[in-house]
Predict the 3D structure of the following.
Amino acid sequence: MPRSVLGGHEWGVYGVGWRPDGRLLASCGWDATIRFWEPDTGTCVQVSRDPDGSANFSGLAWSPDGKFLASGTTLQGVYVWEMTTRSIRWAGHQPSTGVRRVAWSMDGRCLVGGGHDGYIYVWEASDGRLLQRLAGHQGAVMSVAFSPDGTQLASGGGSRDNGELFVWDAQSWQRVQALVEQRVVISAVAFSPDGTRLIGGGSDGRLRWWDVQNGECVLVREAHQGTVYALKMSSDGSRLASCGDDGAINVWELETREHLRTLRRDRPYERLSITGIRGLTEAQKATLRALGAVEDPAATSSRHVP
């Protein structure tokens, strides 16, 4: 069970992130707000809104020094918030496109965003000047991530026919690797702590490990029912967390690449045994399992399906 539940957003939450010092948590969603939380008490200490009231926020990232917060929007580029004043420092509205995920360079000098239009945008972090527009993706760019040493950028996305996972040189902004996974959109990306492996989460619910140097897929793991939406490393680099369309967070041991545990809130039929219950179609059973029901011959639950 979760230690605490932070309630306040009026619609779906599409981004969360700890400030680097761990003393503040930010969350954003489709209610056009960014909320800041005091982690020890679970208190919402600040609510920031789009000045126009029209942009839903779809992702966020803290600058390495924790002084700025960047947020992507569903309609009009990015915002960068200055945390000392909790006000917008600059907004990148040109060109006007939705940005699903954002990432800061390791030195904090530039900000990268993946566009719904298939381009990757690189902004000067201090003033929002557009530095680069990287082309190559055929579908929306769903995720971006810098390597731990800051020398490479990974971008994931794709269309119905092909998933795309690209690696870019973060100095020249030239593409140095192109990986394609048929009929699987790469919706989340992360580098291993040593930068030699690239982990991608797909629209098929699987995690894939690639060798960055030769582009070979070295491992595939079943992870979620539905799309993998985000990947996050632990602060010590030993574990990976993945979250997906099934409402679960899976924790993985990076060295062994084994699944450690699943975190989720109880679903409506959590641990309800449907073993031996008659009159259910396979589709109905699948729906109940997705809502937490189990089929276990040793189960003794006497609960009935309503």
